[in-house]
Amino acid sequence: MALLHQNRFSIFDPEAERWSPPATLDTTLLHPSVSALGPDHLVVIGGRLEEGGTSVCSIHLSPSGIRQVHWHDTSVPALRDAASIALDGERVLVVGGSIDGTSDPRTWILDAARRDVRPGPTLPIEGGIADAILQRSAFGILVVGGERRIEGRPVPPSGPAIVQLDRNSARRLPAPPALAIRTAILANPTGIERFGGYRFEAAARDRGRASVLDDATSLRLVPVVVAD
C-alpha cells in the first residue's frame, strides 16, 4: 500500500505492519490520481500546484528509495480528482477530473513504456465528471459515482457510462432513480451496487447535500445476442 500526501510518499509493509520512512517528492500534489502498473511502478496523474509543471509522472520503487520520472507529453491538462485504472502492465485509462473547479468529460490513454498520451473517447456525460469510480466489466470500463462540478460546486452527474476502448467509444447507461453524490460502489460479476450518498432534491432552493440517501440501487449489464 502506498500513501501520497502533498509532497510526501510512504509505503506500508503488511508483513512488518509498519510504514516506510516518508520520501519527499520534488513537487506538491493536491487531489492527484494514482494507478499501479505492477508492484514497483506508479503513475501519478494531475494534482499539480505549480505553474508549468507536467501533469503526469512515474514513480519507480526500489529498496534504495524512489525515483521520479516526469513525462514530457503535455496532452493531459492540470486535472484534479481524475479517475484512473490500469489497463495492463503498460497502459492507464484516465477519466474526467476537474479543471479550475469545472468537471471534464474527456478521457486519455497513457502508455508508460513510451511515456506518451493519446486521447480516448469523450464521455456522453453532460458537464463531465470528477472523482468517478472505475470498474472493469466484460463489456468495458464502467464509469460510476462521482460528481459534476460547476465552479467548484458539486452536483450529481447526469448518469453513469461505459467506455469501450476496443471500439474507441463511450455510451450512456441508465441513470439511477435517485440523484446523489459520494455514494459507495460495490462491484460484482454482473454489475455494480450503489449504496448511500447525499441526495439532491430538484425542487430544493439549495442544491447542496440536503439529506443522506439511505437506499441502494443496482446496475446490471445483461449480454444481448442478435441472431441473423
Describe this structure in words.
The protein is mainly β. The protein has one domain (2-220): Kelch-type beta propeller (Neuraminidase, 6 Propeller). It has strands at 2-5, 8-13, 18-19, 23-24, 33-36, 41-45, 56-62, 65-70, 83-86, 91-95, 98-99, 102-103, 107-111, 116-119, 133-137, 140-144, 148-150, 153-155, 161-164, 169-172, 180-181, 184-188, 191-195, 198-199, 211-212, 216-220. Strands 1, 2, 3 and 4 form a 4-stranded antiparallel β-sheet that branches. A 4-stranded antiparallel β-sheet has the order 5-6-7-8, with no helix packed on it.
Summarize the structure in short.
The chain is mostly beta strands.
Supply the key terms.
228 residues, mainly beta, Neuraminidase, four-stranded antiparallel sheet, 0% helix
Chain-wise SSE layout:
Layout: E1 2-5, E2 8-13, E3 18-19, E4 23-24, E5 33-36, E6 41-45, E7 56-62, E8 65-70, E9 83-86, E10 91-95, E11 98-99, E12 102-103, E13 107-111, E14 116-119, E15 133-137, E16 140-144, E17 148-150, E18 153-155, E19 161-164, E20 169-172, E21 180-181, E22 184-188, E23 191-195, E24 198-199, E25 211-212, E26 216-220
Antiparallel strand pairs: 1-2, 2-3, 2-4, 5-6, 6-7, 7-8, 9-10, 10-13, 11-12, 13-14, 15-16, 16-19, 17-18, 19-20, 21-24, 22-23, 23-26, 24-25
